[in-house]
Amino acid sequence: MAWTRNVLRVNLTNGSITTEPLNMQWANDYLGQRGLATKYLVEETDPTCDALSPDNKMIMTTGPLTGTMVSTAGRYSVVTKSPLTGCIACSNSGGYFGNEMKNAGWDMVILEGKSPKPVYLYIENDKAELLPADDLWGKSAWETDEQIHAKHQDPLVRIAVVGRAAEKGCLFSAIVNDLHRAAGRSGVGTVMASKNLKAVAIRGTRGVGNISDPTKFFKASEDGKKVLAENAVTGEGLPALGTQVLMNVINEVGALPTRNHREVQFEGASKISGEAMLEVRESDGKANLTTNGACFGCTIACQRISTVDKDHFSVKDKPQYHGNSGGLEFENAWSLGSDCGVDDLDAITAANFLCNEDAVDPISLGATIAAAMELFEEGAITVKDTGGMELKFGSAEALLWATEVTVRGEGFGKELGQGSKRLCEKYGRPELSMTVKGQEFPAYDPRGIQGIGLAYATSNRGACHLRGYTVASEILGIPEKTDPLATDGKAGLVKAFQDATAVVDSAGICAFTTFAWTLEDIAPQIDAACEGDWSAERCLVVGERIWTMERDYNLAAGITGKDDTLPKRLLKDAAKTGPAEGRANDLHKMLPEYYEVRGWTLDGVPTDETRSRLGL
Predict the structure, then answer these.
(1) Domains of the chain (ranges, CATH numbers)
(2) Please, are residues 414 and 387 in contact by the beta-carbon 8 Å criterion?
(3) Where are the beta strands (DSSP E) in 396-500?
(4) Which of 441, 415, 417, 409 has the alpha carbon at shortest distance from 427?
(5) What per-residue confidence (pLDDT) applies to 318?
């Protein structure tokens, strides 16, 4: 009974706040968090609605393990329709907000309608109220966090907030909690701002006490922590270097997208790697990496805390960046670094600080800037468009300028804030947008890692590595090594990763645990926490049910099998260097088999038999 069984429903249009019992039949069918909230969204909204209209709903949601003693059990998700892609959006975040929400007694908070004026939601256990936010509108996420904490005089209040970018309509705006943890992708922050909701602040002191079998649960969670501690990735690599442990690895295997995916290896990768973050600067005798950190309940501690040289041009006049803040992860180091051809570690760290300060997805931002740089190089964009800035690959100054105008929604930043798909279409070069279903690629080139290309193409929320991280198998050999350049068997591999990840996201734990854990490690923890029999086999069926439900939502929204593709560059232009030299991505070989193993038709529609088998 790890669910609280309580749902808070907030109608922003009329200001009403009501409570209702959690639908336990749905909880048993979809587990929690990603799966359960998506079920609510599917049942309560029209998939064809405008994502930024009051008809769209936004659900903040925890999993049954959130707030418990299971390692990494501090996750929460935001589920809505994406304004960037038009697809289902589920964006996952760590930090402490999810734990606070669960400790306040809520499985989910459903936000519907649109407030007539700016407000923020304040929750203290079973009490909730909408408070004026006129004085917070137009403020950054960091300024808003500081002012709400000052108003409530409680440092333990946990706050999730949008920045200026979301208010100005940047389609890849995030929701930032705990200053530098984020529900980052697909524009969930843009949806929140469209509802005139500036922040959600929560204080919970009720605890999580509904564990089904406490003795069994204690042993299962302790066994799980031991597995994480003894694993080379979760026990050593991630604590020491964070996800940045991957920068040099991915570059060496020839799968590091560089200069808007024109190349697959970056000559400056070592300068922006996890190892480089540990090097002491000559200028001030300090390293970029100050320390590591951890989200609630996490025994891995992959979080980066960084500082930038105070005299570096990027932060010289920005005292808010002179202290410690959230440092670079692999994805933002790639998108703001190699994808833009920039090897200035301090500059890309400062750009990442800007993303945190105003709640912007650094993956989509960096990839969009990279597309703009290629457009500039091709002459499609000129200094007349940018107001004088030369958007050249490798220019740290251009990177910082583009980041600042985007997070502020100023000038050319408004164009960048629409994402690379709309940007490239406007300037007549749609083929230069490296997206799937309108969402920008993460940091792995599908020519060098074939399976991740299939995962990108079929992802329910657009290009995403966290919906089916086949890199674990293809590069790291987890749970078993597969050849990154082979296509045989990749359809089954992708499906397995996608279904398992849906379970992890729905449980309330971090996907990074799966570098060490399989479902055989996760299922006993769910089983001891929740009523009923939660075997690994049942969990996999739940994962497949969630994935197929998301697919059906997208189909109803007009996203079809024709959208299960990759940019022409990756399908036609071969890699120029590295182990994948001469190879493009062979999606055409993998996609038909993927549809078959999923039990879908040749055009990517789940069959009636498959829906019946999954209870859909």
Answers:
(1) 6-203 (3.60.9.10), 258-433 (1.10.569.10), 445-614 (1.10.599.10)
(2) no
(3) 435-436, 439-440
(4) 415
(5) 83
Quick one: which of 81, 110, 105, 79 has its CA closest to 92? 79
Cα–Cα nearest to 63, from 501, 511, 543, 506: 506
Q: Let me know the angle formed at the C-alpha of 277 by 275 and 280, rounded to the nearest 5 degrees.
A: 100
Query: Residues 339, 432: contact at Cβ < 8 Å?
Result: no
CA dihedral 593, 599, 603, 606 (to 10 degrees): -150
Q: Are 197 and 119 in contact (CB under 8 A)?
A: yes
pLDDT of 1 reads 67
Q: Could you please report the per-residue DSSP string of 208-275?
A: ----S-HHHHHHHHHHHHHHHHHSHIIIIIHHHHGGGGGHHHHHHTT---BTTTTBS--TTGGGGSHH
For residue 465, what are the CA distances in angstroms to 84, 176, 194, 459? Answer: 17, 20, 27, 9
- Is the pLDDT at 551 greater than 70, yes or no? yes
Token digits of residue 283: 């200028």
pLDDT in tens, 455-469: 999 999 999 999 999
Q: What's residue 317's pLDDT?
A: 84
Average pLDDT over residues 116-136: 98
Average pLDDT over residues 217-224: 96
Q: Which of 362, 372, 364, 361 is nearest to 432 (CA)?
A: 372
Model pTM?
0.97
- DSSP-assigned letter for residue 485: T
Task: Render pLDDT for 372-405 as a digit per residue (tens, 0 to 9).
Answer: 999 999 999 999 999 999 999 999 999 999 999 9
Are the C-beta atoms of 455 and 465 separated by less than 8 Å? Answer: yes
Nearest to residue 485, comparing CAs of 592, 585, 591, 573? 585
Cβ proximity of 263 and 576 under 8 Å: yes
Alpha helices in 435-535 (DSSP H): 450-458, 471-474, 490-507, 519-529
- Let me know how long the chain is: 616
Does the structure show a pLDDT above 90 at 178?
A: yes
